[in-house]
Amino acid sequence: MLEVTASALEQRLRERFAPTQLSVQDESAAHAGHMESSAAHGTHFRVRISSSAFQGVSRVQRHRLVYDALDDFFAAGLHALALQTEQPAD
Question: Residue 64 and residue 74: Cα distance in Å, rounded?
């Protein structure tokens, strides 16, 4: 089964988007009791990503791209994803 961790999400996002900046923070502890949780699986993450893949793409489309890239993580227990998506500054 796919393990939902900050490092696993970071690896997937690096593979898919080759970001110039990437930060993945596990905020699951702040949501204890919100959902069933286990020590092995995170449920709530905050992601800040900057990638040339987002060049000329709307914010909504950027978010969809990230959600699509992490689709199997949602099936494995990822519950919430706070996103900040940017294109690199010239």
Answer: 13
What's the rounded Cα separation, in Å, for the pair 36 and 42? 10
Give the total number of structural domains in the chain.
1
Q: What own/partner pairs with CB < 8 Å and gap ≥ 24 does 57-61 have?
A: 57/87, 59/85
Please check whether residue 72 lies inside any domain of the structure. yes
1 is a domain residue: no
Domain housing 66: 6-86
- pLDDT digit of tens for each residue in the chain (90 aa)? 789 999 999 999 999 999 999 999 998 876 555 555 444 457 899 999 999 999 999 999 999 999 999 999 999 989 899 999 999 885
Instruction: List the CATH number of the domain containing 63.
Output: 3.30.300.90
